[in-house]
Amino acid sequence: MSLAATSISPPESSAALIRCHDCDLLQALPPPQEGTVACARCGSGLVTIKPDRLERAFVLYLTALLLLIIANSFPFLTMKVQGLVQSSHLLSGAIDLFGQGMWEISIAVILFVFVVPLIKIVTGLLVVGPLAYGRSFRGAESLYRLFDRLHPWAMTEIFLLGVLVAYTKLVDLATVELGPSLFAFLGLIVAMIAADSTVDPHQVWERLHAAPRVPPPPPALRRRLVGCHTCQLTVELPELPQDTETHCPRCGSPLHRRKPDSLARTAALLITAALLYIPANIYPVMTLSALGSGAPSTIIGGVMELIEANMWPLALIVFVASILVPMLKLISMSWLVISAHRGSPWRLRDRTLIYRLNELVGRWSMVDVFVVTILVALVQLGSLANIVPGPGILAFAGVVVLTMLAALGFDPRLLWDRAGANST
Q: β-strand 254-255 against 246-247: which pairing, if any?
């Protein structure tokens, strides 16, 4: 069910106010009822009201924690070929990459596949768990602030797609057995997705510190009301010197009318990512050495191998995630920065949607990095077969991370500001 927020001018009674993070429209939330509340101007989702299922979310987070422990305790995949056996654990590839000098990739994989999901799960247990039973603790707001910041960087489901791609590359060459950790990891993904979909962060913030219901503010006051980017609380920003930082009274996040230097920072990140995109597609991401001879493989070469193996659906997924998405993201984000700088009023709602899509899909390009990580852990069979990571995978990982940071650093409200749509 989808609901629309209303303009703040008609209501006479008190209401909870919220500013849209994508277009900055100040609006009144409708009375609480199940469904998604969308911005009345740009259509962005503001809040999602769900049935009170915090107890279920607590159980799911606890299940996810147990499954994460199991997923790191037993073999993940085992490869058998000509009497040789090579087993790998969840983080074996990351450890091997560190030993081969690719410490940047190693740290990224450990963070995205283990550390960030662990922090999310623990945060859910410590904050959502007590709230399910009507309790809280001092500092819960600061802890739950991490949940919003870390959400884009938890990539367990993308790692699973990488496992599927690596499996299809090896299954015709050797016997590949699925270990108990892989099934636990699959259960972990299901439990985390179920827990995240059970509870809306806005409801958690309301339980921690309910937003006040206020009468419609006069026009002169509206420009002083800013929305916290973390907990969505609408706060009156005091008149302070320009270099003075103010923090949200609910979650402690810094308050700002707009993200500082958004266009300049986003442009710098995009330029750097574009420069890395060239070596990422030219240099090999890995080299397979079999019986003394090596065969380097690029990203597009990996897609061609899947096509030759008649794995058309998987080849399409990898092509879209690893080649098409990074390229389109560089083009579309550059267009958004240029159009915001020029103050173009053309199709503001559509451009805001493009921004939201960039935020949503960019992380899936990490699949190739995870494929190399898995293969490096499995194919270490001495003179028989060996996989060595190439410089292309480091450049490609840089492209993915930089484009993600560019999307997170871009402020879509500038599209509306510079087109003259935010006069109040």
A: antiparallel
